[in-house]
Design a protein that fits this description.
About 50% of the residues lie in helices and about 10% in strands. It is of the alpha/beta class. β4, α4 and β5 form a beta-alpha-beta unit. The protein is globular, with a radius of gyration of 18 Å.
């Protein structure tokens, strides 16, 4: 397990056809958009990918498509968590068989578990695969916050738990992970509005749904930080932050999909019951995309 994730990872959106099916050709185009933009990895079936609204077969289709089409150009992370340990194990084994590089496990959602139950779930799933495992901390969806001490303990106790995606939105918690536990686990910050802060603090990678929209621009921030050019990094961040903030201030998945449509790469509507983006948010995003002078997708 020598792989080390670094840089910018795109949390891929899932395209849908007009009749609500997974749009495989557009998913391939979305993978290409990110890789052509210079990202360092792609993520299938994350929250931006609406995994909770996908059937079991659709989740497998998305994973298979992303792994196949990426074809080793960058690492592929697949989110395999579920509400039951058994289903998470099935998803994780499938991802390993497909050739994914890392599995990402969200804690079970809907019914908030105790920390002991959550840790037991992570251990049980990790033991069934040889792939590196990324814990996915998203307390607003799961009701459980994986604090830095718990994450560090799991990484010390379970050999293949090697990453944590922290989407708590708490930069203080992410900083504790980076500074106190980096010997055992790599922290990937998953809050798009904390990209510059996380990279400056020393996070080896960030995972962003807005990288579907502006992959090259987010990569530019990372590359400037990695080069120690913090003036350029700040300027690059200042340029894109208003758009990132607008997307985060709106319902996130509809906003990502609306921005891609503005850019000439429509990937369909969010899966119902999630509604389309409201007109005020859409107008704001259209204005910011125009101001950034982002190039539309080629016809």
């Amino acid at each position: 397990m020598t792989l080390q994730l670094t840089g910018v990872l795109t949390a891929l959106a899932t395209p849908f056809t007009d009749d609500g099916q997974v749009d495989v050709p557009k998913l391939r185009l979305l993978v290409d958009r990110s890789i052509d933009g210079g990202v360092d990895g792609v993520v299938a079936c994350g929250s931006t990918g609406e995994f909770a609204a996908l059937s079991h077969a659709e989740r497998r289709l998305v994973v298979e498509t992303v792994v196949e089409h990426t074809a080793g150009r960058v690492p592929v992370v697949t989110q395999t968590g579920a509400t039951s340990t058994a289903e998470a194990i099935q998803n994780s084994r499938h991802a390993q068989e497909c050739g994914a590089d890392v599995i990402m496990l969200i804690a079970p959602y809907y019914e908030a578990l105790s920390m002991a139950e959550t840790a037991g779930y992570f251990r049980a799933v990790a033991e069934t695969v040889e792939l590196p495992v990324m814990l996915y901390n998203y307390p607003s969806a799961t009701g459980v916050n994986l604090d830095a001490e718990t994450v560090g303990r799991l990484a010390r106790e379970v050999e293949n738990i090697r990453y944590v995606k922290d989407s708590s939105g708490d930069m203080g918690q992410a900083t504790q992970l980076i500074h106190h536990h980096s010997q055992y686990i790599s922290t990937i910050v998953g809050s798009d509005n904390l990209i510059l802060a996380a990279l400056t603090e020393g996070a080896p990678a960030v995972m962003a749904g807005t990288a579907n929209i502006i992959p090259g621009e987010i990569v530019a921030v990372h590359r400037a930080v990695a080069a120690g050019d913090f003036v350029t990094a700040q300027a690059a961040w200042n340029r894109i932050y208003p758009l990132i903030d607008a997307v985060l201030s709106a319902p996130f998945v509809p906003a990502v999909k609306a921005a891609l449509e503005v850019l000439g790469q429509p990937i369909g509507k969010p899966r119902r019951p999630t509604a389309d983006l409201d007109s005020a948010s859409l107008n704001r995003i259209q204005k910011l995309v125009t101001e950034l002078q982002l190039a539309p997708a080629p016809a």
